[in-house]
Design goal:
This protein is α/β, with parallel strands linked by helices and about 375 residues long. It has ten helices and ten strands. The strands form two sheets. Strands 2-1-5-10-9-6-7-8 form an eight-stranded parallel sheet, with helices on both faces. A two-stranded antiparallel sheet has the order 3-4. Helix 1 crosses helix 9 and helix 8 packs parallel to helix 9. The two termini are about 30 Å apart.
Length: about 375
């Protein structure tokens, strides 16, 4: 029995059909594409997300979760995070038929695409509002486009608006909270969230990610925040190849002690599944069982720190084969409601030989040293 079974929580799910209509085009960066190779669908596409919802429905879990609304975020909600100039840039591209934006041209805004980006941001606020209002204990926003790379003035890495940060500033500025924490386990650095709260002591921003992956030169342990925000940004860059034991060590030695010290009133998890063993955009080795264990740890910590208040916003995860099973495991654990689904990738023939290697332990120790020096 893992953490959640027998301890049912009311869990909200944000889902909206129009989120699946976010058009990512046929040209996946760079902005000037090659005339030499047939175009291919970008990794962030409808299929992977719809397959998650299909599995949630097929398992019977969707019916047992609270269906949360997904209204568009208002311009004021977006402007807590993004500049007026950037908002106008997205608006203009959206009105003019769409195109690619931002670093390496990796973020596509479709024709009228701002409407769907506003839905994704609004879905993250809806999940947060439901948790803060006590309508549900915790909530998962199954949204796209993702958000954690988006900067105040720039799209990046498939992200248009910074959904999780927008939800966080809603919780602080409108919801009246004093302290929130982010635990971002997407395999890529949560650079947008880091930048948005860089000088803000009200938010502890933690990111576990594959070191030197994406964005380039971003997410080192010495990035600890600035001004009044010094000591409220914690990066845990892990070497490629890390599996469950490395992530659990990072949680037990770094993430959980940081949460216990900071005592957030709400924990937001920018939840990517691209640290999964199948992922084409990451080189880590997590399974659905690993994501279940990480969720159980966050859930247990939240119950002792902030009455179980957790909001998860969907980020990356690009294996259409295994990501649905990862997300189902997270939602089973969040809600405490098991299903009959067996993950085919957990069968004995698929077993991953997970060893916690010395260079992986060194990476966890480096993050732990930063935690002890600047944060604890
Ligand atoms: Zn990612």
């Amino acid at each position: 029995m893992l953490g959640g079974w027998g301890e049912n929580m009311t869990t909200g799910l944000v889902w909206e059909e129009r989120l699946m209509w976010h058009d990512t085009g046929m040209y996946f960066g760079p902005a000037v594409f090659s005339p030499w190779i047939e175009p291919v669908q970008p990794p962030e596409n409808t299929d992977g997300k719809r397959r998650i919802k299909n599995l949630l429905d097929r398992s019977g879990l969707t019916k047992k979760l609270h269906d949360l609304s997904c209204p568009q975020a208002s311009k004021e909600d977006i402007r807590r995070v993004h500049t007026a100039k950037y908002f106008a840039e997205v608006e203009k591209l959206s009105e003019n038929g769409g195109g690619n934006l931002g670093l390496m041209g990796t973020t596509h805004v479709g024709n009228k695409g701002i409407d769907i980006a506003l839905l994704a941001a609004g879905g993250s606020i809806s999940a947060t509002k439901a948790v803060l209002d006590g309508k549900v204990d915790n909530a998962y926003a199954l949204i796209r486009p993702p958000g954690h790379h988006a900067r105040p003035n720039e799209a990046m890495g498939f992200c248009i608006f910074a959904n999780a940060a927008i939800a966080g500033l809603y919780a602080l500025d409108i919801g009246g909270l004093d302290r929130i924490a982010f635990v971002d386990w997407d395999v890529h650095h949560g650079n947008g969230t880091q930048e948005i709260f860089w000088e803000d002591p009200r938010a502890l921003t933690i990111s576990l990610h594959q070191e030197n992956c994406f964005p380039p030169a971003s997410g080192a342990t010495d990035e600890i925040g600035a001004a009044k925000g010094i000591g409220t940004n914690l990066n845990i860059p892990l070497p490629p190849g890390c599996g469950e034991s490395a992530y659990l060590a990072a949680f037990d030695h770094v993430v959980l002690p940081a949460l216990e010290t900071f005592k957030p009133q709400l924990i937001i998890v920018p939840c990517g599944f691209d640290a999964g063993f199948h992922d084409p955009l990451g080189r880590m080795m997590l399974t659905s069982h690993s994501f279940r264990l990480l969720t159980a740890r966050i859930k247990a910590a939240s119950q002792s720190i902030c009455d179980g208040k957790i909001v998860m916003t969907h980020e990356g995860g690009y294996s259409p084969h295994s990501v649905p099973f990862h997300c189902l495991a997270v939602l089973e654990e969040l809600s405490g409601i098991p299903t009959d689904v067996l993950d085919p990738y957990l069968q004995p023939s698929q077993k991953i030989d997970d060893k916690f290697l010395p260079h992986q332990a060194d990476a966890v120790s480096r993050a732990e040293a930063v935690l002890k020096k600047y944060i604890l």
